[in-house]
Amino acid sequence: MVGIPVAARALIAGAVVGAVACALPALAPSATTPWSSLALLAALYAVSEWPARCPFLTRALGPGSVPVGAGSFLPVLLAAALLLPPAAAALVAVPGALVSHVEQRPAPPRRIWRAAQLGLAAWAAAHTAALLHGPAAVAASDFPDVLLPGGAAALVFCLVVTALDGGILAAAEPVPARTAWRGLLPRSLAPHLVHGLAGLMMAVLWRSPYGWPAALFVLLPMYISCWMYAQYHRERAAHQATVRALVQAVDIKDAYTRGHSERVGRASVLIARELGMDESRLDVIRFAGILHDVGKLGVPTRVLRKDGPLTREERRVIELHPEYGHEIVRGIGFLGEARAAILHHHERMDGSGYPYGLSGDRIPETARVVAVADAFDAMTSTRSYRRARPVPVAVAELERCAGRQFDPRMVRALVRALDRYGWQTAVTADEPARAGDAPRGRRDLPAGRRPAPGQVWGGAR
Fold first, then answer.
1. What is the full DSSP assignment across 172-236?
2. Which of 301, 346, 310 is nearest to 441 (CA)?
3. Is the pTM of this model over 0.85?
């Protein structure tokens, strides 16, 4: 328990005491606990949880290839809530929770907490099912009447789990109490109801003439779906790590615009949502915004950090960064159309942009989105050579350049999104200078050139 806040220790202790009190009646000499069914369900749940800790399986299938987490096998616990008395149902989760896979340390208190949490949830779900005559309806296979106790048990299970999850989050993490529970129930309700339906099917098959072996067939599709879900999240985490590593590399190379990429990604998503783009494209749009300047990795540092105006040759080097970026990400398949945005985000509607001088609808849609988000953040961020412009001023500048530099449809979408959600401006380059850092001048203007009225530059050249 070393390193765990006092409030979290108290909550864990309270949950353990509560779970023990709920389970004690099953151990009383006068209790009629169905030990054979309890042991079988507990063993089934433990066997479902154990593979994620098996060194042989994780080596054979690869880390992250085995479904992990007690949530993967909740149908077993919800079936126990419909088959067993409440005190017995509280015991089913204990062996599995104590052998379950835990990624964060310390592991023992996390396993103890999980055992207590699931024990309390199963006890409450079993009580709810008993009040609605769920065990009798399950034994009689009384459809559709059995759906009410099954659904109510799953709902109560979800309520208890989310209430305890929010409590431990508020007690153990630096999360304000008012936000610890926010969004937990809506996110958890649908999965728990699906698990509840699977648990109801298990319970009905368990009480059928075919007995408990028939109930195992419910777990097979659940296990496969959980494996696919684990693979999806493993792949998504790898994508996020790849993007994060590239952004960190750019920030190290040019700390001058630190935070700019993330904000461009956020603004790009605002525009995409306002345009009604499919949810499946939003991640790609966000990646496009975040990685739009990844090509700066190929630009010499002395050019990026030069104090004062750039020469014509240096300007030509800078204008290669979209092509450098496209080469860097060309082999990253999950980026999809984000690669085109990285290559073309400096094109202009009138054809005066670079690298290929595309115009109008020949510029990919994602690139037109990122171009507006990039320019907007550049204008609303404080830089070493100027203060941030107010949002209304930046919007007016975008509107003046719509049709020549920017797609008017993207500008209108950003304006609507800002009216609806607002925008949190931030400082990107006003940090105290570090040793060895040279003072920076106006890095976005080439030598011998000044902006014409209404002209806007992107966030990085």
1. HSS--HHHHSTTHHHHHHHHHHHHHHHHHHHHHHHTSTT-HHHHHHHHHHHHHHHHHHHHHHHHH
2. 310
3. no
Provide the CA 223 distance to its chain's centre, in angstroms: 22
Task: Return the ∠ at Cα 112 (arms to 82 and 1), rounded to 5°.
Answer: 160
241-281 pLDDT, tens digit each: 888 888 888 877 776 666 888 899 999 999 999 998 888 78
Domains of the chain in sequence order: 6-235 (no CATH), 254-421 (1.10.3210.10)
CB atoms near residue 61 (< 10 Å): 13
pLDDT digits (tens, 9 = 90+) for 141-192: 877 888 999 999 999 999 999 999 888 888 887 667 777 787 788 888 888 8
Q: Look at residues 314, 433, 296, 317 and name the one whose alpha carbon lies nearest to residue 374.
A: 296
| Cα–Cα distance for residue pair 75/86, rounded to 1 Å | 16
- Percent composition of the chain: helix, strand, coil (DSSP 3-state, to 5): 65, 0, 30
